[in-house]
Write a structure and sequence with these properties.
By secondary structure, the protein is an alpha/beta fold. The chain contains 9 helices and 17 strands. The strands form 5 sheets. Strands 6-5-2-7-11-10-12 form a 7-stranded mixed sheet. A 4-stranded antiparallel sheet has the order 14-15-16-17, with no helix packed on it. It has a two-stranded antiparallel ribbon with strand order 1-9. The mean pLDDT is 96.
């Protein structure tokens, strides 16, 4: 058994798909069913006996400062959050990784999935009935992951947290450090690096029911889980849009982010009253499309 030393919650990304709420505040700081997402995770970790919690920040980092005093966590800046994928967040905490939970700040766990003692390295997974675009797992009989494929059908797929043993952490950090300066690694998720080294980085699947682990990529997905967001999006941008269109916020649906030619978040499209609109962050104007 591995005694958990600490937990890392990755919260550096812009979460641009979660438009426009993520344009106004980090996705990790939205309130879901009465509790701030990242505060819920911290509480669940502490209840499981994991006292040392590190938050990797980047986008709107100053908005996380209150957590240091309120919950006694440690903030670590990821200086490369705009130029690299989430492997930069792992690199930022490479010196504190031991027997460590690696968590995504935007996950919601209906039940506490954490524990103080863990037997094996694992990645949480949920079953997809039918086709999925998620990262699907092929495992040995004992649950060891032998292959990961993006997209599949009727399969267990990666969703949620992961646990790394001290040995796993050391091996992964060695691999990441040796390749970090290579241009081709900048866009890689840490999971993509893991996939290239399955023989060295042994990890098992940890299966969860689909009603335990949640992730919200868009406002519409959040609304399905927390229906209070239908009539009140908590977004000043959408409240302004509703005012201009003389409609209720619940009438603004199918909200999807779009990017400009530089791949930066530029705005979002949405539907209201059977019409489709485009909203620009730069001009703060909308137009029919």
């Amino acid at each position: 058994m591995h005694i958990v030393d600490n937990a890392v919650i990755m919260a550096a990304g812009t979460a641009s798909r979660f438009a426009p709420l993520s344009y106004e505040k980090p996705k990790a700081l939205i309130t879901v069913k009465g509790e701030v997402l990242i505060e819920r995770q911290i509480r669940q970790l502490r209840e499981a006996g994991v006292s040392e919690v590190y938050i990797v920040v980047g986008y709107k980092a100053e908005m996380f400062k209150y957590l240091e005093e309120k919950l006694g966590v440690h903030l670590i800046m990821n200086p490369d959050f705009l130029t690299r994928n989430n492997n930069a967040s792992i690199y930022a905490v490479k010196d504190i990784l031991k027997n460590t939970y690696i968590c995504s700040a935007d996950n919601y766990f209906s039940e506490n999935p954490f524990e103080k003692e863990v037997s094996d390295c694992y990645y949480a997974a949920v079953y997809a009935d039918g086709p999925t675009k998620e990262w699907c797992l092929d495992c040995e009989e004992d649950g060891t992951i032998r292959n990961v494929v993006v997209g599949g059908e009727n399969s267990w797929f990666m969703l949620g947290h992961t646990f790394w043993s001290e040995e796993f952490s050391r091996k992964f950090v060695d691999i990441l450090t040796s390749t970090y300066d290579l241009p081709e690694t900048a866009d890689l998720l840490w999971e993509s690096i893991y996939m290239k080294h399955l023989d060295e980085l042994k990890m098992k699947i940890r299966k969860y029911s689909s009603d335990v682990v949640f992730e919200f990529d868009t406002l519409d997905e959040l609304r399905e889980f927390d229906t209070s967001y239908k009539a009140d999006t908590r977004s000043e941008i959408l409240k302004n849009v509703a005012s201009k269109l003389s409609c209720g916020e619940e009438e603004i649906v199918n909200v999807l982010a779009y990017k400009d030619h530089t791949n930066e978040a530029a705005g979002f499209t949405f539907e209201c009253g059977g019409e489709k609109y485009k909203y620009s962050y730069e001009t703060k104007e909308m137009e029919k499309v």
